[in-house]
Amino acid sequence: MADQENCMRVTRLAKKRAADGLIVEQQPGKKRVALGEINGFPNQIENLGSKLHSPKTKQAKRKVKKAVKKVVKVEKGDNAVKDIIDSKSDDPQMCSAYVSDIYEYLRQMEAQEKRRPLRDYLEKVQKDISANMRGILVDWLVEVAEEYKLLSDTLYLTIDYIDRFLSKKPLSRQKLQLLGVSSMLIASKYEEISPPHVEDFCYITDNTYTKQEVVKMEEDVLNALKFELGNPTIKTFLRRFTQIAQEDYKSQNLQLEFMGYYLAELSLLDYSCVKFLPSMVAAAVVFLARFTLNPEVHPWNQALQDYTGYKPADFKECVSIIHDLQLSKRGGSLVALREKYKQPKFKSISALLSPVHIPDYYFEDPTM
Hints:
mainly alpha, Cyclin A, domain 1, globular
């Protein structure tokens, strides 16, 4: 009886809600159906697919593309070639529709004073740290990044954080390695899907520093940088500049790509490169990579000049420094990067050296 009364009470309540408009009663004879059971639905999808791939539709698309290219050429003039190159990329992450605006913004961002280290911070701020110590630290961090399989973007950000922190705060040499691992911890949290733990960075230093010390230095770095962590790096610009440099080849040239990566990471070792903007270093790297692989041909052209915004004369000093690093005239004792890029997966690119002398006329404006 109790069950029957409860059932009746629920029924009466449902009718009352329906009368008040709170429930829309389902009409008799109708039932809910799954999406796939709707008559004609699969056929509609098939018909739609056939229409999208029909000869008429394809022909219309081609006409539209031609019309768009024609308009772009008329409206943008010299920039039309750049737009056509950008539109060739099928990678949605390259954002071909507005990549020019993105990189223009990044160029403005990289030049902001708050995002740049001092070009002479070792002389002005630091008293106990030398350029050689910095180079040894960077070379060791390359090994750490390899050990934990970190992205190269993480390594670039790590060095950026180190240089910017040292531009603001004096540090003793005993804490330089602590700054390195704490900066890499921050960069890993920013870039990696599964960053290493604090304990991992303590272990990699042979427990020279405690977990509390690493976390405290992490706090100090974040406060010194005012949490400005998303800076454009050399790698940011190198991605696009390499894409433009590949236009000279019928298919992707992996040697050129790996040579660019190698030379860009070499530039991190030398304190003299701190004064250059990341985009300039990326342009210098592409210049030297092309020269190394084909020294008989001028390594720069009009397309690269338009895209990078640099003439060869602009980055001559930067090329000279990286060239010396490549030939081991600088940082010859720092071997981690050279060993890294001797691996077959990088086509042993570090074993390939460029000619000792770069012709002076290569730094003149390329013949158009």
